[in-house]
Amino acid sequence: MTFISSRGPYPVTRLRRLRQSEWSRKLVAETALSVNDLIWPLFVLSGSGERQSVDSLPGVFRLSVDLLLAEVARAVDMGIPAIALFPVTPLDRKTEDGREAANPDNLVCTAIKAVRQRFGDSIGIVADVALDPYTTHGQDGLLADGRVLNDETLEVLCQQACVQAAAGASVIAPSDMMDGRIGAIRQALDAAGHYQTLLMSYAAKYASAFYGPFRDAVGSKSSLGSGSKQTYQMDPSASDEALHEVSLDLAEGADIVMVKPGLPYLDIVRRIKDEFSVPTAVYQVSGEYAMLMSAANNGWIDRDACILESLLAFRRAGADMILSYFAIAAAELLADR
Ligand code: PBG
C-alpha cells in the first residue's frame, strides 16, 4: 500500500529497506538450500578404470565401480546424504524381457554392494526400479504386440527391487509408472524381510522430452528409437492427475514421493506439498542440466549462480530433497559460502 507521508508523496512501506544489507536479507530469507537436501545421481559402467564423458551432459561421467567409489567418497566428505545409481548395461546383457534387472549380480547390484561395503550407512543409496536399462526396446516394462504390459511387468519389478534391496540399497525408487507398483513392491520387499527399505516413488513422472541426455548416458535412447513412453508416463498437461498418482502411491506405502522433471513442473511440487505434507522430492533432470550447462559454457549465464538459484527454487516450491547432477558442485558452492 502506498501512503502519502508528511514529507511528501513517498511510500511509507518500503520493501527495499530489508533488502539493503546482506545481514537483513539473511534474516528475512524465507527458504534455504543446504547440502542436506541433495541427492547425487551417478552412472555406473562395467569394468575397471573406466571413465567416459557424456556429450550431452558436460561434466558428468560414466564410471566403473572402482572410480565410482572415489566420487562417492567426495559426496560423503561433502555431507551429501544420498546418491542415486544408474547402470549403463552392456549391450550383450539387454534382452526383450530385461531379465538382467533381476540378476542379483548385475552391474547396479555390484555397485550397491561395493558402496555399502566401503561406506556402510554413512550415505544413502537410491536404486532405480524400471526395466529400460535392460530391455532391447528401451521401454520401462515388458512389451507384447507393441504394448507395455502392466501386471506382468510388476512381477519383474518386484524381483528387481528385491535384488537391489538385498545388495544393500537403502531406497528403492520405482521410475516405471506402472499402475500398482508401489503396493506390489512394498509387499515383495516386506515378504523378503526388507521392511526397513525405503520407497521413493517417482509418483508424478511426466512423459517429458527433457530426459534425452539421460537416455544418451545409459544408452537407452538408441534402444527406444522412435518409441515413446506416453502410455505410462503422465501427460505434461496434467495437474490434478499428479495428486491422484501421489494419493495412490501414499496409500500403497510410498515413504517419499517425487515430481519429475523439475523446473518446468514447480507448480506440481507446490500442489503436492500443500495437499499431502509428506516428504517430497524433485528431480532436476538431465535436459535441465544440459540447458544450464550449455548456456554456462557459452558464457551466457553465470553457472554457479544459476545452479544455486535453480536449486533454491525447488526448495521454495516445497521440495524437501532434490536429485541433481549439480549436487556435488552445489555442495562445494554451499561449503564456500
Ligand atoms: C528410467 C529413468 C529415466 C530417468 C530416470 N529414470 C528416463 C526415462 O524415464 O526415460 C530420467 C532422468 C534424467 O533425465 O535425468 N525409467
Can you walk through the features of this model?
The chain has 337 residues and is of the alpha/beta class. It has a single domain, classed as TIM Barrel. Helix content is 40%, strand content 17%. It contains twelve helices and twelve strands. Helix 2 (65-78) crosses helix 3 (107-119). It starts with 21 loop residues before the first helix and ends with a helix. Ligand PBG is lined by residues 128, 130, 132, 140, 175, 211, 214-215, 229, 285-286. The site of ligand PBG has 11 residues, from helix 6.
* CATH third-tier fold name: TIM Barrel
By secondary-structure content and strand pairing, the structural class works out as alpha/beta
Summarize the amount of helix as a percent range.
25-40%
Specify the number of helices.
Answer: 12
Q: Describe the largest sheet.
A: 8 strands, parallel, barrel
Characterize this entry briefly:
With 337 residues, this protein is α/β, with parallel strands linked by helices.
Q: Characteristics of this structure?
A:
eight-stranded parallel beta barrel; two-stranded antiparallel sheet; 12 strands; 337 residues; alpha/beta; binds ligand PBG; TIM Barrel
Topology (SSEs and partners):
Layout: H1 22-28, E1 38-45, E2 51-53, E3 61-64, H2 65-78, E4 82-87, H3 107-119, E5 124-129, E6 143-144, E7 147-148, H4 151-167, E8 171-174, H5 181-191, E9 198-205, H6 212-218, H7 221-224, H8 240-252, E10 256-260, H9 266-276, E11 280-284, H10 286-297, H11 303-317, E12 321-324, H12 327-336
Parallel strand pairs: 1-3, 1-4, 1-12, 4-5, 5-8, 8-9, 9-10, 10-11, 11-12
Antiparallel strand pairs: 2-3, 6-7
Helix pairs in contact: 2-3, 4-5, 8-9
Bound molecules: ligand PBG.
